[in-house]
Specification:
The protein has 649 residues and is α/β, with parallel strands linked by helices. The chain has 20 helices and 31 strands. The protein folds into 2 domains: 10-503, Rossmann fold (3-Layer(aba) Sandwich), CATH 3.40.50.12780; 523-644, GMP Synthetase, Chain A, domain 3, CATH 3.30.300.30. Bound molecules: 5'-O-[(S)-butoxy(hydroxy)phosphoryl]adenosine. 5'-O-[(S)-butoxy(hydroxy)phosphoryl]adenosine (WT7) is lined by residues 264, 309-311, 386-389, 411-416, 437, 498-500, 512, 514-515, 521, 526.
């Protein structure tokens, strides 16, 4: 790969916690002597009972992953209590509301009180250690309080992104058998309200029909909008927290006790409940947060994600708070009131580190440089990118226009499953190449394999696996360990397979090329094509559907749907709208189809398997390179698909 190399800026090198020599030495030790490395770095969190065992993991057979297993600790204690003496009056959370004139600071002491009160409410209403609590909230501090309150009493949280539909929320409530739900009357984003309580009401009804009765729907008053009320089940957040004590002991948890479940999409079936446990996850999120962002005492750090995604779990809540950082929580969107919002917020709170997604960077780049250049941004020191490949143009814009060439960019590759950052530059150590996530973090052993599983050495392009366990790794799919084994450890036995394609260049730098399975990445949000297909075929007019991703200038990938209609059904604009609404109802706005094409027939092999490769090429408008179509049962369908393609260049 010949790519422009950006050497580490002298300033970044001077102040960095880790320079290149340290990186190389620590990395070497972390893979040669993982026991020793993690025995030492496992001390970065506080343990109630110190661990004596460090690592006990196998990727073969039944797949069992255990870290620090005989230690006991508590995630909320590590995020709050242990900081009280030294930084009780320091800001733990700076809340930046949807409207630019609304901001609030929550100190570590205030955070302690809020979390304790909410934990006591949960206990008073019957939540016990191991119970699952569903959190369906806007991006307000109370969402973080709810997560930490669960952690404090040993309940397992399942945060569901506020953009998901009642159907999707219900599915997650049922899978987790969760009878306590936290929500708000309405969310507010970009000046628009989202009817969270009304959605939660519908979800509770659906869950009830599927056998799970929600006993408490705790509702935060965010807007004061009208909501329906079910006596006995529905209670107001603030009414309840006022009734209870402001102190609540942190439960002693075993390192391997579950901390949370987070549902994420895969190639097949319904979203899976990714399960993370306590000790290893806390060590992993805190160490990565500190070194990847070169976090120093007193820095103001902003991850502009939503707590509904893993990025919000690991890098708004757990990692930064474990490190005693000040973490910014942003309720709004980067383009409201206008495209200057992020940079004005940086100036307002004197933010030093910003972590966001390429889709936001591309959208802001499209709006024009004046939105950036009219702000100072002199406080900025490190910029981060996450969620999808960042194209070199967007990288250069972020670097030169936003960072004025001063700020290293950390392009961080990881997944819901990995718990935290895996492949990434370190600001004071890594020379950067735009578009490359560069090198593995401590303890991460990437490997590229070909389709048959042969290991590729040196410069190569293949499928990205990780050969040994790291502390932040998911432990199982909630309620379905077989699915965990099948999904991640069966394609290449004995290895964790990420589902991503990847290239390694002559310098040993990694370049993620995107998913190689039936998962698409829309604006950094992960979507299973199978989920969208099942929503489409649930419509009575549709007999068959196939969904693929295609390149989209802002979203990264767009959603392209091929549908075959039931005999006698005619295509119409009205039907198109119905199908779009159907997908939004079943999943949520993030799954809104960009293109729908009616296909009298889909390209299938003689054994009936849909050849998605062909559908992808047509969606990309790249039908000149369809490859071998001779194995199709009816090669004629391809001509019809091309003639009616929706994405002409
Ligand atoms: C998928 C995981 C990482 C937390 C947020 C998304 C893609 C993620 C990068 C990156 C290229 C990336 C991968 C991965 N991805 N980061 N820096 N460069 N691709 O978590 O929803 O679990 O999605 O996001 O395809 O598999 P997720």
């Amino acid at each position: 790969m010949s790519a422009k190399l950006h050497p580490v800026p002298e300033d970044a090198k001077r102040r960095a916690l880790v320079d290149n020599e340290t990186y190389l030495a620590w990395y070497e030790r972390s893979v040669m002597d993982p026991e020793g490395f993690w025995r030492e770095h496992g001390q970065r969190i506080d343990w109630f009972t110190p661990f004596t065992k460090v690592k006990n993991a196998t990727f073969s057979g039944d797949v069992s992953i255990r870290w620090f297993e005989d230690g006991t600790t508590n995630a909320a204690y590590n995020c709050i209590d242990r900081h009280l003496e030294k930084r009780g009056d320091q800001a733990a959370i700076i809340f930046e509301g949807d409207e630019p004139d609304t901001a609030r600071t929550i100190t570590y002491r205030a955070l302690h009180e809020e979390v304790c009160r909410l934990a006591n409410v949960m206990k008073a209403r019957g939540v016990a250690k191991g119970d699952r609590v569903t959190i369906y909230m806007p991006m307000v501090p109370e969402a973080a309080y709810a997560m930490l309150a669960c952690a404090r009493i040993g309940a397992v949280h399942s945060v569901v992104f506020g953009g998901f539909s009642p159907e999707a929320l219900a599915g997650r409530i049922v899978d987790a058998q969760s009878t306590f739900v936290v929500t708000a009357d309405e969310g507010v984003r970009g000046g628009k309200t989202i009817p969270l309580k009304a959605n939660a009401d519908k979800a509770c009804d659906i869950a009830g029909r599927d056998g799970v009765t929600v006993e408490t729907l705790l509702t935060l008053k965010r807007t004061g909008g009208d909501v329906a009320w079910k006596e006995g089940r529905d209670v107001w957040y603030r009414d309840e927290t006022e009734k209870v004590e402001a102190d609540c002991p942190a439960e002693e948890m075993s390192a391997e006790d579950p901390l949370f479940i987070l549902y994420t999409s895969g190639s097949t079936g319904k979203p899976k409940g990714v399960l993370h446990t306590t000790g290893g996850y806390m060590v992993w999120t805190s160490i990565t947060h500190q070194y990847v962002f070169d976090y120093h005492e007193g820095d103001i750090y902003w991850c502009a994600a939503d707590v509904g995604w893993v990025t919000g779990h690991s890098y708004i809540v757990y990692g930064p708070l474990a490190n005693g950082a000040t973490t910014v929580m942003f309720e709004g969107v980067p383009t409201y009131p206008d495209a200057s919002r992020l940079w004005q917020t940086v100036d307002k709170h004197q933010i030093n580190i910003v972590y966001t997604a390429p889709t936001a960077i591309r959208a802001l780049m499209g709006a024009g440089n004046e939105y950036v250049s009219k702000t100072s941004r002199s406080s900025l020191r490190v910029l981060g990118s996450v969620g999808e490949p960042i194209n070199p143009e967007a990288w250069e814009w972020y670097h030169t226009v936003v960072g004025e060439g001063r700020c290293p960019i950390v392009d961080t590759w990881w997944q819901t499953e990995t718990g935290g950052i895996m492949i990434t530059p370190l600001p004071g150590a890594t020379d950067l190449k735009p578009g490359s996530a560069t090198r593995p973090f401590f303890g991460v052993q990437p490997q590229l394999v070909d389709a048959e599983g042969a290991v590729l050495e040196g410069e190569a392009d293949g499928n990205l696996c990780i050969t040994d366990s790291w502390p932040g790794q998911m432990r199982t799919v909630y309620g379905d360990h077989d699915r965990f084994i099948k999904t991640y450890f069966s394609a290449y036995p004995g290895k964790y397979f990420s589902g991503d394609g990847c290239r390694r260049d002559t310098d040993g730098y990694y370049w993620i090329t995107g998913r190689v399975d039936d998962v698409i990445n829309v604006s950094g949000h992960r979507m299973g094509t199978a989920e969208v297909e099942s929503a489409l075929v649930a419509h009575e007019a549709v007999s068959e559907a196939a969904v693929v991703g295609y390149p989209h200038a802002v979203k990264g990938q767009g959603i392209y749907c091929y549908v075959t209609l039931m005999g006698g059904r005619e295509w119409s604009e009205d039907l198109r709208k119905q199908l779009v609404a159907q997908v939004r109802n079943e999943i949520g706005g993030i799954a809104t189809p960009d293109k729908i094409q009616v296909a009298p027939g889909l390209p299938k092999t003689r054994s009936g398997k849909i050849m998605r490769r062909i559908l992808r090429k047509i969606a990309e408008d790249d039908y000149g390179s369809l490859g071998d179509t001779s194995t199709l049962a009816d090669p004629g369908v391809v001509d019809d698909l091309i003639a009616n393609r929706q994405n002409r260049k």
